[in-house]
Design goal:
The complex is a heterodimer. By secondary structure, chain A is of the alpha/beta class. Chain A has helices at about 15-30, 45-50, 55-60, 100, 170-185, 190-195, 205-215, 280-290; strands at about 5-10, 35-40, 65, 75-80, 85-90, 105-110, 115, 130-135, 140, 160-170, 230-235, 240-245, 250-255, 265-270, 275. The radius of gyration of chain A is 18 Å and the shape is globular. The two termini of chain B are about 35 Å apart. In chain B, about 65% of the residues lie in helices and about 15% in strands. In chain B, the strands form 2 sheets. Chain B has a two-stranded antiparallel ribbon. Chain B is built from 4 helices and 4 strands; from the N terminus they run αββαββαα. Chain B is of the alpha+beta class. In chain B, helix 1 (about 5-35) packs antiparallel against helix 3 and helix 2 runs antiparallel to helix 3.
Chain lengths: ~290, ~120
Amino acid sequence: MSQGIVFFAHNNTEIDYGSIALANALMIKHHMGVDAITLITDEGTMRHLKDQHSQQLIDNAFENIRIQQRRKVENNKRYRDTRHTVNLLQFYNINRSTVFTQSPYNETLVIDVDYLICNDSLNAIWKHKESLMINAKSLDLLHGRHHHEFERVDDFGIDFYWATAFFFRKNQETEIFFNLLEAIKANYPYFKTLYGINTYNFRNDHAFSIAVHMFNGFAKSKLVKNLPVNFLQHTLDYDELYDITDKGSLSFLLEKINEPGNFIPARTDGVNVHVMNKYSLVRQSKKIVEMYK
Amino acid sequence: MSDDRLHKALEFANYRQTFFNQKQILKNKSQALLSYSIQGGTFKVTQELIAFVGTFVQQGYEEIVLLDVNENPIKIDDLKSFLTEITSRYFEVTNDYHKQYSEMQTKRRTAKLVEA
């Protein structure tokens, strides 16, 4: 049975998702020992990736590259680079629901390019009894900092699920799930209103949260299970990934609670971290590639 | 309070906050690593699980069915080897936690706490 990891990467005018994907693919190869990595991208992102990196390095990082046509969508997302910069940019990475048909693997782990892999704990998913796993919990790297929007989609709403990392095995059940996801995406204004979601743009996490809720029988039944490690860890876009000192060792500046613009330092060794400040990831991606290639 | 004393107090508060946060990062890392998957099931490696499995190994059982974190029944075919695996995982993780925490305790400056 084939097993592999799938990334989605579509650059916008400022964020080079392709280079982040390349850096993370090299990290995955090193820390998880997985070579079967597929990149789903578009022509423009691919062209830019080839301008930035050698063909040999790209071929070494990805087993497959699938080019999709990038559709122009009106889906703006606020990108922050700490408190200092905020930009409203196009967010093209909304084609996650196509992964069922796009993935060349029977067992697929889908990872956001900004979820930096520094250990092999996700290898526990392969040949798992569950055919669909996704986490509802993510811990902030700064202890005590809580964001309610990461717990529920709305104050009185359903549980929030993270599309940052999820696993599925191709079967009839998961096909229904991804078809449902497609339907939610196609009728997003309706589902957004139904579930009391106030954010303007389409967000993968929200679409997945709705799909999981419906798949759970419109209840909190936990029929859809968590990944073997039942939580992710993240830093906010107000934080800064300022260095990678060694393989698997990430250094951050985390914005203090109730003190905007003031930070405390933090370091992780061998911890998978979802880095929300994409600008800082782009800044560090060159160093990551140099370190891991 | 003189400026110097206030400055030192604020510096120490920063140090304590960084120390506490690094400890939480180590704790969460240990929690994540204390997970063991076998036969398509996932187990949280705890003192209770080790003691429970150990009891049956001592009684001569070679295989048993255990409920995993998702409450799925998982048949463990080689109980002795499972015990060895979860015990070594437990000590690998807790020893590493102890080592890193002890190192942290010797560092008295904020910058040193997050140095490689």
